[in-house]
Amino acid sequence: METRSNHVLVGAVVLILLAMLAIFTVWIARFGGTEEHEYDIFFRQSVDGLATGSSVTFSGVPAGQVKSISLWQPDPQYVRVRVSLKQDIPVLRGTTATIQGSFTGTSTVSLDGAVKGQPPITCPDPDPNKVCPLGKPVIPTKTGGLGAILNSAPQLLERLSTLTERLTGMLSDRNQASIAGILDNTNRLSAALADRGPEIAATLAQTRVAIAQAGNAAQQIGELAQTTNGVLANDIQPTIQNLNGAIKSAQASADTLNSAIGDARPGLTTFSKQTIPQINQLVRDLRVTSASLATIAERVEQGGASSLIGQQKLPDYKGK
């Protein structure tokens, strides 16, 4: 009986010591461990490959792990993923979360996009339930990686189907025959070009010579233009100066003529208003005098000079 009681006592003491050692180890681990922060992420996409304990990275650096995954009851379209991150991870405003898949089937949560100088993502004091519905800060999401490909898979399949239908319509028997004809014509054209190879080479050589001659002609034209500019600058300048002097002299003569016309204008007015009417009257008087002289000459011619003094004789009257 005493031996059995001693064994029970020793066993009890050993169990107590082991329990104390375990408690001390856990206390030391908590004391020496780093504090972690929890965040909620609401994904509106499939989280296939993501499981509890999956790793969380921040710009490729291990930052924590996934604590739990569940559907969000208010809106089952969203999947709530709660992650636990190290205390020193800078989860600032602008940080976004994406699901990075892999060919092995496992997925990870990737965080990036933190903006320098922005405050950390926290739950505000006035209304925490509006921004943090489950009491934890929420990290926004963005579609990326395989998730973006999977989300756009229906559109890609539809476009591939449309493209396949168009290719099928384009590769009909009629179009295939047309394409075969085009290829035959292309082969003939290639053969003709190959046969005309020497002629094409000679044409290219002549073209090069023509281009060289055109370059020389352009150079000569440039030199001629420079010579013309020199002639215009040296020889034509005196002529232009003489022409300018002649223009000035002509201008002075025109001014003098204008002055003379201005001075003669009163005399011309008097001549037109007085002298010309008098000349007209004189011309009329001369016409009258001329007519009278013509009459006198006619009388002298018919009756002699006496006809100007005496009266004209009446003709003798003879009775029957």
TrEMBL record:
Membrane-spanning segments: 7-29
Q: Which residues form the signal peptide?
A: none
User: For the Mce/MlaD domain, which residue ranges apply?
Assistant: 42-111
Swiss-Prot/TrEMBL keywords:
Membrane, Transmembrane, Transmembrane helix
This protein's record includes keyword Membrane = yes
Please name the Pfam families in this protein's record: MlaD
Q: Which InterPro entries match?
A: Mce/MlaD (IPR003399)
The protein's name in its UniProt record: Phospholipid/cholesterol/gamma-HCH transport system substrate-binding protein
In its UniProt entry, the species of origin is given as Sphingomonas palmae
Taxonomic lineage: Bacteria, Pseudomonadati, Pseudomonadota, Alphaproteobacteria, Sphingomonadales
